[in-house]
Design goal:
596 residues, four-stranded mixed β-sheet, 15 helices, flat
Length: 596
């Protein structure tokens, strides 16, 4: 019975069925730190990126450039469109196809009216501002794209109020019923003249809107904050790891908690954090004093109890009584019978408390095991070093680290499966979704899979904790096969448990929608730093600038490859007022540097 759930076999094919060090994407939680002995590389491009303070502007410019090219508009108008559609470029394109250019502009508040300048011959004339109703010189008024013109003082006051109110990302024109968004360049110019600090705040709001208003980009919830944000490319229902090592659920920005849904984890966290279970214990084990209403715990067998305030009362019904009593009666009191409502409430509270304790104890046990096993990392490294120092026929020991990382992942999934079961088969969320018979069948199905996974995880933990570095070579080979087989089986059982949750349990709900982050054999994906094509590395810019300085006003074309620099050609060029370093790349990394 000990080997019911893991595979057998001694061939090299069996060994190869488990991913090697180089095939893994990432490691979970604590096991990710300083893991130089196992660099796991994904076979596909990562679907999430780390946006640092340095790359935030580049990431924003990338989306702005796409919209500017699509509509042939200025950056200000492109930003207005993207903020309105929460930086979803695909949605901008979809609405554009559906409503056309003028329709999407009207919805977002973009106005492309021709600029009507004041007559230069009348530069000394005055213009009436319809906000303050003063006549001001024409040079002291500003005209927006929507053709509304007001004095600079009124515009500046309007902008300052909006910035202080936190509405700087979409500042509308002051004219009545005008939905046009004000030009950010004008806002910056007018505000900086009086309040440079507010102008900086305005620019920071515009920059951070890429994260604050973007459903596909969220701040890393690390404490203290690392300053990074994570951008996902496909589904926002996923778990990611920041470059700082923080793993979290991208959907709810709490710790990674699959196979729990976000709502389940939120309720479970609150239940474990607050004093709700203390209240349950008080309800089960105490009765309120009928005089002072303080909870009183019974510490003897007699049903006549006394509160510290001096009031005596009956433990059976809670009614106030006298102090004199006999074996069969209490003075001034006749209990009669139990109050059924009170009895049922107490029994229900007691049952709920015991049920919560059952799931919480197992959740806590696996969480504690995960923390203890995470300390095995250094021990495992020492064991591998000791094995490598021995003269053994076996020279490859990646199975040890692979087994350790599989243990971490499966232990984590196993611990979060208990909060899931607490809510899935309880009355808090899905009371009306299934009958008692259906609940019993589904609970038995899930618990069978949970127990199989738990049994094999404990076996794997036992093998990895053994001092196998001191064993004879034949015994080391046996442990190796056990670990490899258990890793394969545990991965398969995790997949089956997640499939059961997604399809048989959550997938069958009719009135509620609960989704979980998908299971990945290689663990939570580690986000890579965002590299925007048109924005080169600092070192590349330095090289381009140095070579461009030598060109003395010519266009110089360079090809970067393998960190070497080849000169391709030089041709005369003049007449442009641009200084561009490192523009774009397609397929091969081709950079153009212009120096005027």
């Amino acid at each position: 019975m000990e080997d019911d759930y893991y595979l057998s076999g001694n061939s090299d094919d069996d060994v190869g069925s488990y991913p090697s060090d180089k095939e893994e994407e990432s490691l979970d939680g604590l096991e990710n730190n300083d893991c130089d002995d196992a660099q796991w590389i994904s076979s596909k491009a990562p679907s999430c990126k780390v946006i640092t303070r340095e790359s935030l502007l580049a990431a924003q410019k990338e989306d702005l450039g796409r919209v500017m090219d699509l509509f042939s508009v200025r950056e200000h108008h492109a930003r207005t469109l993207l903020i309105h559609f929460r930086w979803d470029v695909e949605k901008v394109i979809a609405v554009y196809v559906e409503k056309g250019k003028f329709g999407i502009f009207a919805e977002a508040g973009v106005t492309l009216a021709e600029f009507v300048d004041l007559d230069p011959d009348e530069a000394t004339s005055t213009v009436r501002c319809h906000i303050c109703m003063d006549d001001v010189p024409a040079k002291d008024v500003t005209l927006m794209d929507c053709s509304h013109c007001f004095c600079n003082d009124c515009w500046t006051g309007h902008f300052i109020v909006k910035i202080n109110e936190g509405q700087s990302k979409r500042m509308r024109c002051m004219a009545h019923k005008c939905n046009a968004i004000c030009d950010e360049a004008i806002v910056r110019r007018l505000v900086s003249a009086q309040h440079p600090d507010l102008a900086e705040k305005f620019d920071r709001y515009l920059l951070e809107s890429y994260i604050e208003d973007n459903r596909m980009v969220k701040w890393c919830p690390s404490t203290p904050h690392c300053g990074n944000a994570i951008r996902v490319e496909n589904d926002e229902l996923c778990e990611v790891e920041c470059s700082c090592g923080m793993q979290f659920c991208f959907s709810c920005v709490s710790e990674a908690h699959s196979p729990c849904s976000c709502l389940m984890w939120k309720l479970w966290s609150k239940k474990c954090r607050d004093e709700s279970e203390t209240v349950n214990w008080i309800t089960v084990h105490t009765k309120p004093c009928p005089k002072c209403h303080k909870p009183v715990e019974k510490n003897g067998g007699c049903n006549l109890v006394s509160c510290v305030c001096g009031q005596a009362f009956c433990w059976l019904c809670g009614g106030a009584t006298g102090r004199d009593h006999t074996w069969s009666s209490i003075a001034n009191h006749s209990c009669g019978r139990y109050k059924e409502d009170g009895k049922r409430k107490a029994e229900r509270a007691k049952r709920d408390l015991y049920r919560y304790m059952h799931y919480h104890n197992r959740y806590k046990a696996h969480t504690d095991s995960f923390k203890q096993e995470s300390r095995m990392r250094e021990t495992v490294k020492e064991k591998v070093s000791h094995l490598e120092a021995r003269d053994l026929k076996l020279r490859e020991f990646s199975w040890v680290t692979n087994g350790l990382y599989r243990l971490f992942r499966s232990r984590r999934s196993l611990s979060y499966s208990y909060p899931f079961a607490f809510y899935m088969f309880g009355d808090d969320l899905f009371k009306d979704e299934m009958t008692e018979k259906q609940r019993e069948i589904k609970q038995n199905l899930f618990e069978d899979q949970q127990q199989q996974l738990e049994s094999n995880v404990e076996k794997l933990s036992k093998f990895l904790e053994e001092p196998f570095a001191e064993y004879p070579e034949e015994q080391v080979m046996q442990i190796r096969m056990h670990v490899i087989n258990l890793c394969v089986v545990i991965d398969s059982l995790c997949k089956k448990m997640y499939d059961c949750i997604e399809n048989e349990l959550l997938g069958s709900l009719e009135f509620s929608i609960h989704s979980i982050a998908p299971y990945h054999s290689n663990g939570i994906e580690k986000a890579e730093e965002l590299i925007v094509g048109w924005n080169t590395q600092a070192s590349g810019n330095s090289k381009c600038q140095k070579e461009a300085d030598r060109s003395n006003g010519k266009v110089v074309l360079f090809l970067f490859s393998c960190e070497e620099l080849w000169w391709v050609g030089v041709m005369p060029f003049s007449g442009l007022g641009y200084n561009i370093c490192g523009i774009g790349y397609m397929f091969q990394k081709l950079y153009i540097c212009l120096k005027i």
